[in-house]
Amino acid sequence: MHATTPALLAALALTSAIAQAAAPVQAAKAAPPNKLSASDVIKASQPSEWRPLDPANTLYMELPAGRVVIELAPDFAPKHAANIRTLVKEHYFDGLVVLRSHDNYVAQWGDADEKNPRPLGSAQAKLAAEFTVPMANDKQFVRLPDHDGYAPQVGHSNGFPVGRDPKAKTTWLAHCYGMVGVGRDMDADSGNGTSLYAVTGHAPRHLDRNITVVGRVVSGMPLLASLPRGTGPLGFYEKPEQQVPISSVLLAADVPEAQRARLEVMRTDSASFKAVAESQRNRPGPWTKVPAGYIELCNVTIPVREQK
To answer: Are 83 and 193 in contact (CB under 8 A)?
Structure first.
């Protein structure tokens, strides 16, 4: 019997660590072939697996081409969500513009007049950044088994894609397509919700934990994603006539019920949502020749539908 050398011990430890890190992906690839498409799963889902939008945390942004519906996530950015609700209730955004459409990146809206900015009313002018919040804020996290390059763990919480770090006990909203963030300057605490953007291109996950994310667009993304690209630096519109006017931004709670969007989101802690993720991890049907056996966080569709 030969003695185990330090080099062999190190090699064995490294092999074990690699195997443990790969286990979730291997488990996903070892799953039986998936036979249901995401649309099949959605059709077979139960009413209890859906939830309506909370009118107190739902925004309606009215553009010339139609309505953009945004759901705020106060569990992940409580102070910024509260400030945005105040701004909306005091009609801060009414008459402002979409001032930037950066190709494969974001569409941004706010006050284009930096020399004579619109008064904030009773909203806060300065807020501490909420790049992350304590994991205790998030009681509905459901982890994806797939590994991720930007967070120790990723998954979904109450209809939002999130990352988390169990060692630091922090969690955060991820920069997936349609997510809404707070524009800021160099100072981490310089964003207060008066300037917002929606991700319209490939998920810029490098922004995670560097910007406060406050929610996501649940309806109307084509109205933002199809805007003409700005020709100025970073996609800003160079001429006022290129900017897209915002007629109003209202809380759904302040809109007559008959005029509200009757939307509901699939519960991300439901069996059907787990099946939706699996259908995208291992796409069924004759077209797919090599199922990936893997899904990135931002490629998991979070279904939204009209209430029945």
So the answer is: yes
List CB contacts of 270: < 8 A, sequence separation 6 or more.
Answer: 45, 48, 49
**Domains: count for the chain:** 1
The answer to whether the CB of 39 falls within 8 A of the CB of 47 is no
d(CA 96, CA 111) in angstroms, rounded, equals: 6
Domain presence at residue 75:
yes
d(CA 31, CA 18): 20
Greatest C-alpha distance within the chain: 82
Structural domain contains residue 40 = no
Half-sphere exposure of 210 (CA within 13 A, CB side): 9
Residue 118 lies in domain = 53-261
DSSP letter for 168, please: T
Burial of 233 from C-beta contacts in 10 A (0-12 / 13-18 / 19+)? exposed
* Residue 44 located in a structural domain: no
126-185 pLDDT per residue, tens = 999 999 999 999 999 999 999 999 999 999 999 999 999 999 999 999 999 999 999 999
Report the alpha-carbon distance of residue 73 to residue 79 in Å, rounded: 11
Using CA atoms, how far apart are residues 217 and 58, in angstroms rounded to an integer? 10
Answer yes or no: is 271 within a domain: no
- Reported as half-sphere exposure (CB side, CA atoms, 13 A), residue 241 has a value of 0
